[in-house]
Specification:
2 domains; 9% strand
Length: 90
Amino acid sequence: MTKPGLRPNRRPLKQAHYDLVILGSGSTAFAAALRAQALGKTSVMTEERTTGGTCVNRGCLPSKNLIEAAKIIHAGNSHRTRKNIQQLGV
């Protein structure tokens, strides 16, 4: 039986010792893992939620996508756009 909140299908770690344990998997975590590798160190990254962190999954990128979609809809609904479409005979 697994502890509440833990997924039973987690892969086992390939080794028992790491030089760096990274908590989270956002952009800073990836930068830390790459730096550790560049220095010849081993690292392991942990994540409680979806890989990529808040910015990629719930923050910056989803917000930017929503803002861009709103701009497109707004531009399509503007008087100038409707006038241009009418002139084209569409």
